[in-house]
Structure formats: structure tokens, C-alpha cells
Amino acid sequence: MAADEIAVIGGIDTHTDLHQAAVIDTIGRHLATKAFPTTPDGYREMLDWLRSHGELLAVGVEGTGAYGAEAARFLTTHGITVVEVDRPDRKARRDSGKSDPVDAYAAATAVLSGRASGTPKTRDGIVEAIRTLRVARSSAVKARTQTINQIRNLIVTAPALVREKLRGQATGELIDTLSRSRPAGDLADPEHAARVTLRRLARRYQRLCEEIAEADADLGPLITRAAPQLVALPGVGPETAGQLLTTAGDNPDRLRSEASFAHLCGAAPIPASSGRTHRHRLNRGGDRQANRALHTVVLVRMRHDQRTRDYVARRTTQGMTKKDIVRCLKRFVAREVYRHLPRPQITTEQLTQAA
Hints:
This protein has 15 helices and seven strands. By secondary structure, it is an alpha/beta fold. Strand 4, helix 2 (69-77) and strand 5 (82-85) form a beta-alpha-beta unit.
């Protein structure tokens, strides 16, 4: 740093079309603020503008998992320290007001004060590819569940002739029967309208099953390639491994310890003691999808893993409830998963070269 160059910290309030950037010095003085378009040229202009005020120590970015994802990627690629900044709480917003420049200055101030210190996900490796592919799979699974529920509900309210023919059929048989049906008649007739609608829903269900199968065929080898040791753990399948990898990100080293990973997954025990009572309760914070993945692993192990079954029996005889046993097992699984997260990081460049 030159003798006449000061050290500065940046802050970015992110939006869809424009990012508002602000610069402060190391004693918190507001220096400048400016808006930039969310384009490759806009990102370059923003970085040049931030650097023009002095030695850029770090940049606080709001929404690194949403509107600020590409900005954080761009800055990290150019060697800038990016700090993830949460939105100010309501009290702070009431005290300081709300506008894009105010929020940008607040992001920079949060970095300077140490209130914001989290390292964002890099989103530039194989785990980001897995996360992207899982988006389509997740929505397809949700739509498939909605579709079969609609079929069941429609059968309940359908005319007796339709309802009786389909009563008691298992899902696979029901979908096959409805998809092969050839209803004929007047659409003004409720019975015919029900038959037509049920066939359309059944065919939608089949298309969604094909889409999910295609996604699984893509994700399975990719997840195994990213974390073979994780997939090999008892009770961990491609779906749960994919969710846990997505939660940790391409740079799991940003998590300082297995305890921080457990806290991120909502599996860290919360003290719930009072007086002579000493106990902990389930943590209802963190990434709920990651917590669900841990819960799935625990349920599978409670049924099929002998070591886990022995643990459950022992703790049950000690007077622990099933809820507390599951909490303890989630914490153990989180610890085990953390130790098997992929390291070193696999980047997009490495993935391209390997392909």
C-alpha cells in the first residue's frame, strides 16, 4: 500500500438489475456510494470503482445465495475477500432508515465491526452443479406428490361408477389403469369429465416419474464422484448425500469445526435446563432440508444398522425418550458426515478438464 493510499472496506446491497455499492474507511467514515448494473461489465466497473478509493480489504455482500451470488463469485475470482452479510434486524432498520445506499453502507459497517464474518459459498464447483440439478428433481417430486393426491381426492368425489372401479388399487396399478383408459362421451357429463381428468393426471404422474428418474441418473454418479466416502456411510444415499453436500457447499472449509456444521444443520443441542433439571432439546434452526436429511439417515440406521439399534435399546433402558435419542443420533451423524465431506475442493475448471 502506498503511503498516501488508505485502506477501505466495501459493502454491496444486491438487487435484480442494480447493485448498490458503498465504501468506508477503517474508522467507519462514509466515503462514496454508487449503483452498478448486474452485468459482467457492471461487475468490472464496480470492482475498479471500489479499488479506486484505496486498498480494498474486504467487501460485505448481502444475499450471496441469491441476487449477490454472481457478484460474490466475481469478487472472489479476483482475489477479494468476500464476507456474507445478513439483512439488518428490524430495530437497526428503524433506527437508521431504509434505502439502497443506507443498506450498502450498513453491509460495509457490519464487516468493519465484526458483526458479519461468515464466508459465503464459492458456488463454482461440482457441488454447485449438484445443487442446480437437484432443483429440478425437488420440484418434480413435489409435483408428483401433488398429482397423486389430486387423483386420490378426485376419485373420492367422482361418480360411483368411476369410484368403485378404482377403489383399493395400489398407486402403480392405479396410474397404469388410468393412463391406459380411453374415456368416450360428452364432457358435460360429470362422469366422463372425471375419467378424462384422471387420465390426464395419471399421464402427468408418469412424465414426472420419468423426469425424476432422469435426474437420479445424472445425480447419482455426480454425487458419488464428489464424495465417495460420504455415500459409503451407513444409511446415506445419493439424495441425502446431495442435500448435505449442498448445505456444506463447494468450500466446506468455511465451516470452522464439526460443531459449526451441526449448528448449520440444526442438529446442535440447545440447553433447556432449569433449576434441578438438566437437559437439552432439539434445535429448530439451521437448514431444515439438511436436518431432514440427517433425520432420514437416523431412521434408516435405527431400522437396519445394528450398532444404532443397540444404542437405541441402551438409551431407552436409561429412560431417554425417542425424541431425545433421535436428537443425539442426529448430532452423531452430523459429526460423521463432516469428517467425510470432500476435501480438497473440486472446482469447475477441474471438472471440465476431467470431462
